[in-house]
C-alpha cells in the first residue's frame, strides 16, 4: 500500500501516489485501477455537478435578462436627456467662443479708450496753459484803456479841427 496521499481539490478524493519501489508493471496496474476508480467516481458525480450548474445557471440568466431589460429602459428614458446634454454642450462651446471674441474686442476698445484718455489729458493740459495766459488779461485791459483814451483824444481833435475849419471859413 502507498504511504503518501494527495487530497484532490476538485473531486475532494484522496489520490494515492506510490513511490517507485515496486516493479513497473505493478505500478502501471495500480495506476489503471486508480484511474478506473476515479472514472467511476466522476461518472457518479457528473449528474450532481450538472444539476448544481443548472441551478446556478437559471438565476444567472434571469439576472442577465433583468439587467438587459433595465438597460433598455434607461436607454429609452435617458436618450432624449443625452441628446439635450449634447446640444447644451455644443451651445456652451459656441458661447465660450463668443465670450473670447468679446473679451478680445473689449481689450481693443480698452486700449483705444486709454489712448483717447491720454490725448484728452494732453489737450486739457494745453488748454489749461492757454487759459492761464488768457486769465492774466491786465496787459489787454491796459491796451484797451489806452485805445479808448486815444479814441477820446481823436474825437477831441476832430472837434477842434472842425471848429478851426469853421473859423477859417468864416474869416475867409
UniProtKB/TrEMBL annotation:
Keyword set includes Coiled coil: yes
One Gene Ontology cellular component: cilium
GO biological process: one example: non-motile cilium assembly
One protein family per Pfam: IFT57
Cellular localization per UniProt: Cell projection, Cilium
Keyword Transmembrane helix among UniProt keywords: no
Coiled coil: 85-160
Family named by the database record: Belongs to the IFT57 family.
Name of the protein this chain belongs to: Exonuclease SbcC
Lineage: Eukaryota, Viridiplantae, Chlorophyta, core chlorophytes, Trebouxiophyceae
Amino acid at each position: 500500500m502507498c504511504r503518501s496521499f494527495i487530497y484532490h481539490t476538485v473531486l475532494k478524493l484522496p489520490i494515492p501516489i506510490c513511490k517507485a519501489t515496486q516493479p513497473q508493471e505493478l505500478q502501471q496496474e495500480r495506476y489503471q485501477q486508480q484511474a478506473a476508480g476515479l472514472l467511476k467516481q466522476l461518472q457518479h458525480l457528473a449528474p450532481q455537478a450538472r444539476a448544481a450548474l443548472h441551478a446556478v445557471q437559471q438565476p444567472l440568466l434571469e439576472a442577465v435578462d433583468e439587467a438587459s431589460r433595465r438597460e433598455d429602459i434607461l436607454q429609452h428614458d435617458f436618450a432624449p436627456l443625452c441628446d439635450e446634454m449634447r446640444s447644451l454642450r455644443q451651445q456652451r462651446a459656441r458661447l465660450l467662443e463668443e465670450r473670447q471674441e468679446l473679451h478680445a474686442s473689449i481689450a481693443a476698445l480698452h486700449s483705444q479708450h486709454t489712448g483717447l484718455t491720454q490725448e484728452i489729458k494732453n489737450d486739457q493740459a494745453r488748454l489749461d496753459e492757454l487759459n492761464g495766459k488768457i486769465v492774466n488779461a491786465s496787459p489787454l485791459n491796459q491796451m484797451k484803456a489806452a485805445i479808448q483814451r486815444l479814441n477820446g483824444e481823436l474825437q477831441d481833435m476832430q472837434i477842434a479841427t472842425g471848429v478851426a475849419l469853421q473859423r477859417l471859413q468864416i474869416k475867409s
